[in-house]
Amino acid sequence: MTLPTVAIIGAGPAGLTAALELIRNGGYQVVVLEADDIVGGLSRTVNHNGNRIDIGGHRFFSKSDWVMDWWRQMLPPEPAMNGSSPGPAMMVRNRLSRIYFEGNFFAYPLKAGPETARKLGFLRVARMLASYGRARVRPRRPESNLEDFLINRFGRMLYETFFREYTEKVWGVPCRDISPEWGGQRIKGLSVTKAALHALKAPFQRSGGVAQKGTATSLIEQFLYPRLGPGQMWETVADAIRDGGGEIRLRQPVVGIRHDASRVTAVVTRDQESGAEDIVAADHVISTMPVADLLAGFDPLPPEPVREVGAGLRYRDFMTIGLLLRKLRRTAGASPDSAINLVPDNWIYIQDRGVKVGRLQVFNNWSPHMVSDPGTAWIGMEYFCQEGDDLWSSPDADLATLGADELQRIGLADPEDVLDSVVIRMPKAYPAYFGSYDRFSTIRAYTDDISNLYLVGRNGMHRYNNQDHSMLTARFAVEAIVGKGTEKAAIWNVNVDDDYHEEKSA
Ligand SMILES: Cc1cc2nc3c(=O)[nH]c(=O)nc-3n(C[C@H](O)[C@H](O)[C@H](O)COP(=O)(O)OP(=O)(O)OC[C@H]3O[C@@H](n4cnc5c(N)ncnc54)[C@H](O)[C@@H]3O)c2cc1C
To answer: Is the pTM here over 0.85, yes or no?
Structure first.
């Protein structure tokens, strides 16, 4: 008996979760079609000469028990966090991230207190408080863009000092041009009042475990992390899929979606090396590929209004310059015991107008196993750019020089201490909440009507979904396929509120 085929586009967290859930359910032939030569999507780990890079630094935490249990089942937490045993496991990590601003390090999120006031200057703090007070008394209504959203929650001065520069680096457009929805997704539940209450309560609270259900996403202080970075999770999942009889075809970008308006009949792949096209007949299709690319590959093409919204979707691209350093310069917070002057942060936001770098990762602190020689500092300098712009198109050697120069300019390391470098470019890392995004409902209505097509994940739904959201959307798509009565609406409802369905109904 031939089983119905489910074609899954993309081997990132959403695609792989869907594949494994289908295999666990049984009764389907599962084929994952991946454009790249590696699994994990944005949540991959790149191994460069034994030093590992995580694109963006992936914290594993979720308010969904289903996701937390799923992860723990795939990679059990290690018994003791001694960092010595090499097997696959999750470590429990403490988050430390700071903001680098005008030569000083500030806690992230900002902590109200004498230390912060001293670094910022008492007069400036008084003005910030007054500006926050004004925003609370007279909020901007309607809240029609991200600038309104941030000013209403933090006041104009805090916004201009700590949010505007970084956010505009991330998106490459003014905050006024970005939908307030992005704030809702990204800075969910956070405000000055909540951050201050959190700081006051923290010393008196017992840890509620890594899920930290009552905590706003931006304030999460503990998370799980696979010893060898996020890719280790997704490589383990890929192995389980293959062991369960599923197929993962790498270097097979999907270039066409054949359909008859009510159902998809097949997807077309093009082998990256030979250029040969293959037609994969499918009974169901789960897509995590960018919505814009998906619609452009529709055969026949969608109606004009849908095409137009699809073509108008925007993305922001991302680049990490990995620098292996003999040592860092001694800066605030560096452990006195560290021969390489390692700072304690997982990552540092660079709030400095003089440099292009947006954020800096310290991979040693995500997991000591990410670095082949613990006597070196393994740093990721993150740049937000646009595919094809000057930064994106610069030769790798120039980018390594830029990274080293900027590290020197912000006083963290000297170029002569660079031992090795690598540049990783990730297109479409951020689906943008501008462009034609405000008309996305046109696309949703059209694709929802194609009964056997499920849009899931981050770029797959054009939504700022984290791994856990992406996995939950995959879970609901599988439930719909296997006949558990789940509607497509359940997929779209993930990451709309802070809580997920099962918690809500509970
Ligand atoms: C800087 C940064 C930091 C992040 N930090 C965190 C974090 O701390 N915690 C967290 O949980 N999440 C984090 N995320 C989000 C996380 O990376 C995503 O939620 C997750 O990877 C999305 O999974 P996905 O499967 O939907 O998409 P992706 O990871 O984008 O995977 C999609 C896959 O589809 C493939 N593909 C694309 N087009 C085609 C095509 N035409 N044919 C075939 N395959 C195709 C891609 O190659 C890719 O492998 C972060 C993201 C970024 C950019």
So the answer is: yes
